[in-house]
Amino acid sequence: MRVTVIGAGIVGGAIAFHLARRGGDVTLIDSDEPGMGASSHSFAWINAFGKEPRHYNELNRRSLDCWDRFARLLDADIGLRWGGHLTWASDCEGGEALKAQVAKLQRWGYAARLLDESEMARLEPGLRPGRVAAAAISDNDGHVLPTLAARACAERVAEMGGRVMANSAVTGLDSSGGRISSVLVGDECVECDAVVVAAGVATTEIAGWAGVYVPQQESPGVVVRTEAMPPTLKSVAALYCPPLEDGQPEVHVRQGADGVLMIGEGSQESLAQDDSQAHADELVARAARYLPDLAGARAVPVPVGYRPMPEDELPVLGYAAAAPNVYIALMHSGITLAPLVGELAAMEILDGARVDTLEPYRPERFA
Ligand SMILES: Cc1cc2nc3c(=O)[nH]c(=O)nc-3n(C[C@H](O)[C@H](O)[C@H](O)COP(=O)(O)OP(=O)(O)OC[C@H]3O[C@@H](n4cnc5c(N)ncnc54)[C@H](O)[C@@H]3O)c2cc1C
Hints:
22 strands, about 30% helix
């Protein structure tokens, strides 16, 4: 089966990789280099901590459990690190909310638990948390360097005989007999039996060419970086620190395998547009109140990144009724979800299966 995958981010890359492993004849196309879209802007926390409703939490958790195997199969250094996600609340109200969140996650079987200040200090000796009303860790969470992972997917696809077309924008789709017969890349027509649209924020436009409606919200986000630093976080993968002052968002921090610290504010979905040096400096300074080793670190602003964000914030996955050989793969939390989505999408595309787990996420809900 000839499958053309549009978009070589972490999601399209993972789908193309699993298709190629299973014998699909894959062409992977990106208008840029692999992994340079939303995947390159991501905080890349692999987790299901705040993911709701329950079926979506399960989906994220299953994918979290797939990450080690995925990394092994890719057989490349993609900066995958575990260590859990540590968070705490500084006031009673926040503390009660955190305890309730942990209790719910435990009912759902997610590895989250409360911990005390002495364990926090043991895990992260350099952390100065201030007042702690309640603290929690989700032990199994991790992070990855998504651009390296997307690049590794593209390399493995090429090694397995697939075609990778980087710096090649898809400009149109040709159809015949109600099905997409080829994908247009400049003057070239890439003939195919199925098309996967995994083009991140551009998915809405490209799916629209095939008559498929996939609405998105605009969701800008900013994650600033430092230069590579010696180990600042000793054991945990990600820290979510409470606001220092009323009305200020929380900050989240993680240190990649490359030594670079990434710092964002608010939740994983918070909207942010300020990518100035002044704001980057301020975020590093705020993080340094909790991690004094960060004081004086040089902040490197990163331009605003746009999350692929379906209108209802849940993934959009599956063949579209309006274009039966067009498979849509659009989602936030694509870093967490890519390994599982890659496996399940390849099964649906090549075997014609309909995987029950993906039923809540079908494109038809927007039709
Ligand atoms: C600030 C921020 C923080 C985030 N934090 C997290 C997090 O902590 N954990 C988590 O799991 N997720 C997080 N996300 C979300 C996650 O990064 C995305 O869900 C994921 O990267 C989506 O991957 P993708 O492959 O679908 O999209 P992308 O990485 O955007 O890939 C789409 C690709 O399609 C290509 N493309 C577009 N148009 C065309 C065309 N016409 N022709 C050919 N190619 C085209 C683009 O060049 C791009 O490479 C975050 C995102 C942002 C922006």
